[in-house]
Design goal:
The relative contact order is 0.06. The protein folds into 4 domains: about 5-145, no CATH class; about 160-260, no CATH class; about 335-450, Four Helix Bundle (Hemerythrin (Met), subunit A) (Up-down Bundle); about 490-570, no CATH class. The N and C termini lie far apart (about 100 Å). Helix 3 packs antiparallel against helix 7. By secondary structure, the chain is of the alpha/beta class. It is about 20% helix and about 40% strand.
Length: about 575
């Protein structure tokens, strides 16, 4: 009798087939094999007549994960598919080890996904197309499944200016053409002309989170239009009551529109004319000579030189000539406020950020039972490290005698709470809120003293004091042995040698100091920047509390504070 005929066993679309005579089969990992009702674990001979049963592990269930943005305006869904074990197809062979492969298939229907979203509170802005896509997804990539509605931006009240730049008759040539080289053009209006229109605030539409909660729109800021001298109001419109120069002053919630008359003085201001004082603008077609004084509540424009004299103006000062041994002030009393406004504004913004973080932590229940002083101390030490040095800086700046007492007291109170051991002594959240409100009031008052900032422009200065609430610009041959103070920027074309520059924001100089090492100083607050094409030995640059003295000549210098608060020179 001969040997039994050899057979072949294979797998086709998950079903075992046996052909011919005898073949051998064995179960692989994850396979339970029963031959003629008996479980087998090793090689077993089978024939086409054998009863073969295979049992596999149950399918791996799919999974859903919901991710909601911090502002609750977007929800994303990750979907993991169901993984189903199936017999791996195999070509017929005499000996076969049964193997398992996992097939992925969608695990959830659109209805099941919608039910999952409802169970997790998502009720607004569900995107049907995204639900369908999630139901077909075989990869756990985040799918934007619901989108809330952001609150409308609305619009703050604003003042529309209707006057542009016109040239006064004093700038006209005899043939009627304008001589713009005579100086910057001056805004000028006729009596009855429309000056400004106040546009009321517009509130934006409220938003909605994906949880169906309303998000209130930001309350728009209002602004009041106030008529100054030479102006009348008719509802929200301002009209000129006289011819002259229109000026829109103020900031924040109050803007004042005024029409100033212009006083033009032909010739020198000297002992024969006496001092020159005027409530509006002053234009001087000549020099201001020794021991004379020019005082204006508007702008001052001088075509000649100023020597041994004093010029003070509430507005801008433009001097086409040289300034020798004189005192020039643009924005009387505003320079100190200009220097204060920059760091005080930064402190105000950072306190607003700190307050928002505090609120979010409280809403999450992470601050329950913790003393307010401990919370403030931790936030200042670990997240808002810039606040204490800023508080030190504004505390120093309010010592200027021209700063009013109300601002000084508020800033000093804030500094006591934010510096050193001050945070630990905070008694209540209400005390902190009152401090932040005080800083807001102080900033509003300070900005009201410097807006619009008054600028000063001269051609050259020597042995003089130049001060401006806004910027100082020395346009031609620089300055020698001069003190320059500006609430905003200082720009010097030429050399600045001897003396000192103090600016509230930025300083740009062509050349600082001299080859002989003449002592020269430049100072800006912590957020300020100093740039110079050339810097000589013995020049001192100060940014915030950081100070550097140059020991040798250098080119292309830029000084500022890095994120760590240390002075950077590049």
């Amino acid at each position: 009798m001969g040997a039994p005929a050899a057979g072949a066993v294979g797998v086709v679309q998950g079903r075992i087939t046996v052909e011919g005579g005898r073949a051998s089969i064995a179960p692989g990992p994850g396979v339970v094999l029963l031959i003629d009702g008996e479980p087998v674990s090793g090689w077993t001979q089978i024939t086409p007549a054998s009863s073969i049963e295979v049992r596999l592990d149950p399918p791996h269930a799919g999974k859903l994960k919901l991710e909601v943005s911090e502002d609750q305006l977007e929800a994303r869904l990750r979907v993991w598919p169901r993984r189903v074990p199936r017999l791996k197809d195999a070509a017929p062979r005499e000996k076969l080890v049964l193997e398992v492969e996992l097939e992925e298939e969608p695990a959830f229907s659109p209805r099941e996904i919608e039910a999952y979203l409802r169970e997790h509170g998502i009720s607004y802005g569900i995107i049907p197309e995204a639900v369908e896509r999630a139901a077909r997804s075989l990869r756990p990539d985040p799918i934007l499944i619901a989108r809330g509605r952001r609150p409308g931006r609305g619009r703050d009240a604003w003042i529309e200016k209707h006057f542009g730049t016109k040239v006064t008759r004093h700038w006209l040539r005899e043939d009627g053409t304008a001589d713009y080289r005579a100086g910057p053009p001056v805004d000028y209006v006729e009596e009855g002309e429309l000056l400004c229109t106040r546009h009321p605030p517009e509130t934006g539409e409220p938003g909605m989170t994906v949880y169906g909660r309303e998000v209130p729109a930001r309350r728009p800021r209002d602004v009041k239009l106030v008529a100054g001298p030479g102006v009348r109001l008719e509802g929200d419109r301002a009209y000129a009551d006289r011819a002259g120069r229109p000026v829109l002053r103020g900031g924040g919630a109050r803007r004042v529109i005024t029409v100033l008359s212009v006083l033009t003085h032909y010739g020198d201001v000297d002992i024969t004319t006496g001092h020159l004082e005027f409530r509006g603008d002053i234009e001087i077609r000549g020099d201001v000579t020794e021991a004379m004084r020019v005082i204006s509540e508007g702008e001052v424009r001088i075509t000649g030189n100023v020597t041994g004299a004093e010029v003070r103006a509430d507005g801008n000062v433009y001097i086409n000539g040289n300034v020798i041994n004189s005192q020039i002030t643009a924005g009387q009393g505003k320079a100190a406020y200009g220097r204060l406004a920059v760091p005080l504004g930064e402190l105000h913004d950072l306190l607003g950020d700190l307050t928002q973080v505090w609120k979010e932590l409280a809403q999450r229940g992470l601050l329950a039972g913790k003393p307010p002083g401990l919370i403030l101390k931790a936030l200042l030490e670990h997240k808002f490290t810039r606040i204490p040095p800023l508080a030190e800086e504004v505390k120093r700046l309010v010592q200027d005698e021209s700063i009013e007492e109300t601002i000084r007291e508020v800033v000093q109170d804030a500094a006591r709470m934010l510096i050193g051991a001050g945070p630990s002594s905070l008694g209540s959240v209400a005390d902190y809120v009152n401090m932040v409100s005080g800083v807001q009031r102080a900033l509003t008052l300070a900005m009201g003293r410097v807006e619009p900032a008054a600028d000063l422009e001269v051609a050259y200065a020597q042995k003089s004091r130049l001060a401006a609430g806004g910027s100082v610009h020395i346009t031609r041959r620089g300055a020698y042995n001069t003190l320059v103070e500006a609430g905003e920027d200082v720009r010097v074309r030429g050399v600045f040698r001897g003396g000192r520059i103090v600016a509230g924001r930025r300083v740009e100089v062509d050349r600082l100091g001299s080859e002989a090492g003449t002592p020269t100083e430049v100072s800006v607050p912590a957020r300020g920047v100093i740039t110079a094409h050339e810097v000589h030995e013995n020049v001192v640059l100060t940014v915030g509390a950081e100070r550097h003295r140059f020991r040798r000549f250098e080119r292309g210098v830029r000084a500022y504070l890095g994120e760590d608060g240390r002075l950077r020179l590049s």
